[in-house]
Specification:
Blueprint lengths: L11 H15 L11 E9 L14 H12 L3 E8 H14 L3 E8 L1 E2 L14 E9 L6 E7 L9 E2 L1 E7 L3 E6 L6 H22 L5 E6 L19 E4 L4 E5 L4 E8 L9 E8 L8
Parallel strand pairs: 1-2, 9-10
Antiparallel strand pairs: 1-14, 2-5, 3-5, 4-7, 6-8, 8-9, 10-12, 11-12, 13-14
Helix pairs in contact: 2-3
């Protein structure tokens, strides 16, 4: 198995140089080899589809997302600012793009005033989602999710996290953190990466883990998103607030932004990586 750097350099330009070298090392690895590295493509999308944020809502972002899924054929799609019905639409796009098993999960934000799920303007639940293509053999999956303990009392939307556990393969997680306070967003990030995900590894099983989402934190910002990324994790960003993190046994091969044709206020962010096969895990 090809050697892997312990950490991707933080600056995006420097990361790109490193990724080219890693890709050269990985030529010849098979994505279907159950005992060797498996290639995955992780697509992050913030679709601004609640209908509440008038500055970025167009009503066309889900259709554009389906087009990107069809052309890029990602294995994992992390979804932010969506309505529950959007998951069904994009799950169909994933099924058309892949043979084999596709699983979908949705976690609503919570309305801090009522305790009920937060709602889109159309009445559907509002939150985050994960779509995952699991190559054969499919050994089942579980969904884990939660509401952060730290929330802005002035904002009724209480933020959530979500992970899909593809048994014996990976955890794929997403979140959309608080926008009203970067200090609060940092606390939520720290809870996800320092408490919630380690608890999954401890209570269930360790597997390579990827986290992708709109963290409302920036590389080099105040506070800096790096403050909540564990020292042994890999980290990439899209130049803005969309971040990608992964456990150190993941190998990053490439990353790039993809235009959403002005249907939302964030470009899509695609990361190509390789994860070790079950026989390669040492945890």
């Amino acid at each position: 198995m090809a050697s892997r750097p312990s950490r991707v350099p933080r600056p995006l330009v420097a990361a790109a140089v490193c990724l080219v070298s890693v890709a050269a090392l990985l030529v010849g690895c098979s994505g279907s080899d159950a005992t060797g590295p498996t290639q995955l493509r992780v697509l992050q999308l913030n679709l601004c589809n609640s209908g509440m944020a008038k500055g970025c809502y167009t009503g066309r972002s889900v259709a554009r997302a389906a087009e990107v899924i069809g052309s890029e054929r990602p294995d994992i799609v992390t979804l932010n600012e969506i309505c529950s019905g959007d998951v069904d639409t994009l799950e169909q796009a994933m099924r058309q793009a892949h043979d084999g098993t596709v699983v979908a999960a949705f976690q609503p934000a919570r309305n801090g005033r009522t305790g009920e799920p937060y709602r889109c303007v159309n009445g559907e639940q509002y939150g985050v989602g994960v779509l995952a293509h699991v190559a054969a053999p499919y050994r089942g999956h579980e969904v884990h999710a939660g509401i952060y303990p730290a929330q802005d009392p002035a904002d009724p939307e209480q933020r959530a996290w979500l992970c899909v556990d593809a048994t014996t393969v990976y955890y794929a997680c997403t979140t959309h953190l608080a926008y009203t306070s970067s200090t609060l967003a940092l606390a939520q990030c720290g809870h996800l990466l320092g408490t919630a995900i380690p608890a999954l590894h401890s209570r269930h099983r360790y597997q390579p883990t990827v986290v992708s989402g709109d963290l409302n934190l920036r590389y080099g910002g105040t506070p800096d998103v790096r403050s909540c990324v564990p020292a042994d994790h890999l980290h990439l960003h899209d130049g803005g607030v969309q971040q990608f993190m992964a456990t150190a046994d993941v190998t990053i091969r490439d990353s790039r932004s993809i235009s959403m044709d002005r249907t939302t206020d964030h470009a899509a962010f695609l990361v190509t990586l390789a994860i070790p096969g079950p026989g390669d895990l040492s945890h």
